[in-house]
Amino acid sequence: MTSEAHSESGPSATLPLLVRDFVDSQVIPREDALEAGERDSWEALRDRATAAGLWALPLPVEHGGGGLPLADYLALAELEGRSDYGPDALGSACLLTVRMLDAHAQRELRAALVPELVCGRAGSAYAMTEPGVAGSDPAGLRTTAVPDGSGGWIVTGRKWFITGAARADWVLVVARTGADLPVRQAFSILAVPTTAPGFRVVRELDVLGAGGQYEIAFDQVRVPGTHLLGAVGAGMTLAAERLALGRTLRALRWIGQAQRAVEQLARRATARRLGDGYLADRQLIQQLVFESELQVRSARLLATEAGTLVAAGAPARIEVSLAKTAAARALSTAVDAAIQVHGAEGLSTASGLPRLLRTARAARILDGSDEFHVSSTARRLLRDYSDTATMG
């Protein structure tokens, strides 16, 4: 990417417009083909994003990325997220993995993986969740990595609901490396090549009828010691670093889709004739627009606050949880309202709204269920306010 897209003082004023236009004109019209996994569509979008100077905006410039600082990129994440396929189409979907590798991978591994990921020649997946284990309880994870006696590791276990695992070249695996240690010291993260003997894709899993998630197995997969990220036992610390940014990005992207739904709702209401007027003239329709906009704007403010803290490396557990939950609710409200205003047409795939509805429903579970965030955040707030009152 050239220096025209951003400067030392931040991204240019035109960059948000370019990103939004690319997603709206190039990605959204191809969502059906992208969901079907059509390789030609993905490659065409990568070529067009590269030609437009929009490829891999937040990734290292020395490997072909845009070099955009994280704080500046977060201002674009909502626009990329107007489609679930926007981050992949624009080359920023691997941001979390690249940052983890840059910060914690050994030099040999970093040199082998990062350039390939940034340019789009290789794909990656992140594997933490497992069958039969509550996502909010990492203590239950059973996948293990044991020393092989020659400096490497043998990984055994299963993971599921792993995004894009079938087309990944590498999987970052959270595995137990300390049987009798506390959770914070019991896990490590290893980079496993999907070509390694013993790695296999067990099956594709659907999310409300749509594919793209997978169950994968590690049958005594041997991994060199150089593929360990960070120190032995540091897995949960690394996972927490990734999770804070990951949840913030999800929230911003869901807000992008919620905004898209509000715009679609408004277009329908102002264009649909009803008697001698339009749907938009009806007060109940106006209420749907108002409530949707209220939630979207509120969630955006919360996500912006969380993003500012995360980008600065500041503590942000409460802010991230609030943003994630608010974004999921805003998306649900906006999409439901848009479908209601479209009537029967809103239930058809041609409207694009069922796809957004699927994302909205999954959003209340992904990256921690709403119930988990409500409970954990409430406990922290009660403790913090109690401490403040005691000090006063």
Automatic annotation (TrEMBL):
Name listed for the protein in its UniProt record: Acyl-CoA dehydrogenase
Ranges of residues in domain Acyl-CoA oxidase/dehydrogenase middle: 125-221
Domain Acyl-CoA dehydrogenase/oxidase N-terminal stretches: 19-120
Reaction(s) catalysed by this chain's protein: a 2,3-saturated acyl-CoA + A = a 2,3-dehydroacyl-CoA + AH2
Molecular function, one GO term: flavin adenine dinucleotide binding
UniProt GO cellular component terms: cytoplasm
Domain of life: Bacteria
Family membership: Belongs to the acyl-CoA dehydrogenase family.
Required co-factors: FAD
Domain Acyl-CoA dehydrogenase/oxidase C-terminal intervals: 233-382
Listed PANTHER family: ACYL-COA DEHYDROGENASE FAMILY MEMBER 11, MEDIUM-CHAIN SPECIFIC ACYL-COA DEHYDROGENASE, MITOCHONDRIAL-RELATED
Organism: Nocardia stercoris
Subunit structure, interactors included: Homodimer.
GO biological process: fatty acid beta-oxidation using acyl-CoA dehydrogenase
Keywords in alphabetical order: FAD, Flavoprotein, Oxidoreductase
Entry annotated with the keyword Oxidoreductase: yes
Family annotation (SUPFAM superfamilies): Acyl-CoA dehydrogenase C-terminal domain-like (SSF47203), Acyl-CoA dehydrogenase NM domain-like (SSF56645)
Record bears the keyword Magnesium: no
Cited InterPro entries: Acyl-CoA_dehydrogenase, Acyl-CoA_Oxase/DH_mid-dom, Acyl-CoA_Oxase/DH_mid-dom_sf, AcylCo_DH-like_C, AcylCo_DH/oxidase_C, AcylCoA_DH/ox_N, AcylCoA_DH/ox_N_sf, AcylCoA_DH/oxidase_NM_dom_sf
